[in-house]
């Protein structure tokens, strides 16, 4: 029950209006401490209800008698526009019975319009680091009176290269009384350094170890012979699975565009979202998906970050994500807030070892699924090591002549400049997991 927390009655009214009955584990752990004004470092995944865990204490602090001098009193930093937009909506829903005003500053929007909004001084400002910094430099933003600073998805902001920008924004909010840092992973050295610099004697709340993630989501793998076979399996799944909305993940923009083209050609209502799309396209894709006009979204990791769409109950990894953390983020799109979801990864010979590293990381074994209508010949390695990885097949010795002939038949490796642009950031796990090896690029014919 939310009434167990020392929240203002107007906030309890909003919570009831939103039909939140039971607080989620992150809310139970974080709300009392945040309401006391403590600095917190919270490790919790997207979808765990963490937004309410920092928004409610901020609103509770601001709800008191209005200050004479109007200033920005809370700043919430997030890595992506979509996440910032979603957080603004959440803040507006929780503050609906108060006079607290919030504003949004992200890239891809008109600077002057934003400057005009800032002149009206919202109580809570939500934004992405890059554009906020531009406003600071232009003198259109003053963070001197910020009382609470939230760094949401801090690990991701570091992954995206925002470390310096975030630090500068923290330095500008120098009179703050409370800092709350949220991350989906426990992070690496970069996150530890940031925590040391920006938090004051924080309590560390480790809400969900990776192995407990997504209890409501079934995780399956289906083996495939090559990418064309993966497309057949994908078609079968989209035509035969029961789902409200699905998201299909690829590792590259080129693959996302290619799959999108195939789906549209088959008259699926689909949209594609990746780093090359401009803000208008991204907004449209997300809005259409939310409204239900589109059922399928093809996306790369960066583009889908923080996406919170009701009814997203099927996640298909057309390509395996390149780190355990990324897998967790993708799967975090479904099975949110206790709902059921299904996550299916399509695995070729080249994906197997990566998949088994992720299984070890999650300390889970994915369900092996076979669909007889689209069954291929590959069904996993013949022999596996104790780690689950395939036992390598030793190359037979051949004489030089045959080697040369074979080399002439095999396509040459593509130069790195021609490789499809990837939306994925670094391949190193932030959770102390051994870095996952980058897969060798597949031969062009198979892609
Ligand atoms: P978040 O992790 O903050 O992105 O939240 C994920 C989703 O769960 C959002 O749609 C929230 O509105 C919803 N949610 C958060 N807390 C609760 C709760 N206690 N009960 C029901 N839904 C919740």
Could you characterize the architecture of this molecule?
This protein has 447 residues and is α/β, with parallel strands linked by helices. The chain has helices at residues 9-17, 25-35, 50-62, 81-94, 111-119, 129-138, 154-159, 163-172, 189-198, 227-240, 253-265, 279-291, 301-304, 324-331, 352-362, 400-409, and strands at residues 40-43, 74-77, 102-105, 124-127, 148-151, 178-183, 203-206, 217-223, 245-249, 270-273, 296-299, 312-317, 341-347, 367-368. The chain has two domains: 2-208, P-loop containing nucleotide triphosphate hydrolases (Rossmann fold, 3-Layer(aba) Sandwich), CATH 3.40.50.300; 212-374, Rossmann fold. Helix 2 (25-35) packs parallel to helix 3, helix 3 (50-62) packs across helix 4 and helix 6 packs across helix 8 (163-172). The longest helix has 14 residues, at 81-94. The structure holds adenosine monophosphate. Residues 20, 22-24, 27, 46-52, 308, 336-337 line the site of adenosine monophosphate.
Main sheet attributes: strand count, strand direction, barrel closure: 7 strands, parallel
Any ligands, ions or cofactors bound here, and which? Answer: adenosine monophosphate
CATH topology of the largest domain: Rossmann fold
Number of domain units: 2
Query: CATH H-level name of the largest domain... which superfamily?
Result: P-loop containing nucleotide triphosphate hydrolases
Structural class category: alpha/beta
**Unreliable stretches covering 5 or more consecutive residues:** 398-447
Mean pLDDT rating? 84
Shape: globular
**In total, how many beta strands?**
14
N→C terminal distance: 52 Å
Rounded to the nearest angstrom, the radius of gyration is: 24 Å
Strand content: 5-15%
In the CATH hierarchy, what is the class of the largest domain? Alpha Beta
